[in-house]
Task: structure prediction
Amino acid sequence: MSTDGQGVSSRSARSTTVERGSAATETKRDAHGDVSVDRLELADELAGEGGRAATADIAEYALRLGDDALILSQQLGAWIARAPELEEDVALGNIALDLLGHARSFLRYAGTYDGRTEDDLAYWRDEQQFRCAWLFEQPNGDFAQTIARQFAASVYQYELYTALAESSDETFAAIAAKAVKEVEYHRDHAVQWTLRLAGGTDESRARMIRAVGDVWPYVDELFRDDALIERLGPAAARPSSLRTGFDAVVAAVFGEAGLEVPQGFVSAGGGREGRHFATLGYILAEMQVLARQHPGATW
Result:
């Protein structure tokens, strides 16, 4: 997971800012977007680190957030050189790098509990030791499937980090305050593609409708409170409290796109307790193979 300290930021050609409970507003930009490269000190990328070690409960919560971001980052990375247009190679790669930065911050904080590094936690845990929700483990599928998953994930993460920025835990608050600025772009990007695919050809619309139907059963798990959340109190963002904001954004975007929120089957989930969707093993096998074949290797 080591990086060279570069952070890449990109903006899509069109950007929609979604306010809670209101319709999406569109702002046109340069047809080709823009790409900038900023050199950052690694300490700046891992915002929120302090000298205080995490408790067992804080570490468990940090694992949940870090694993969500890590697995989604790994999934999006698979689109590089496979996206439907060149700008999407850049955009999805940029989003993946942002998420990797979030994962590094949360995993490094989790590791302060027992002395493990972010790399230990990423590469040397087995499937049942991960704490990501099932939504993030859903397969990439076609481009519409990835966009539907990304739309749900980024709207959720925006609500999550907005709330977590007020955490009584200073480290969580600092990480979230930085992450929410990046996730706002991720959300804009997913909104634009949702509208574009739903309002495009008959084929793109059919694929978007199918993708939303495939992804939505895994949304409910994101908003379930449990004993850990109760113990953490104001240090955590209560999942159930995020649902109202999430639903308002979904209603605004789906209303504009002419999409309906699927009803019916809801997944049992279980990722927070180490019970995972069938795809996670394959994701980890690809992500961890180099580190496990060459322990201690650096480059």
User: Anything to note?
Assistant: The first helix runs from residue 42 to 45. Confidence is low (pLDDT under 50) at residues 1-17, 19-49. The domain at 6-293 is CATH 1.20.1260.10 (Ferritin). The chain has ten helices and four strands.
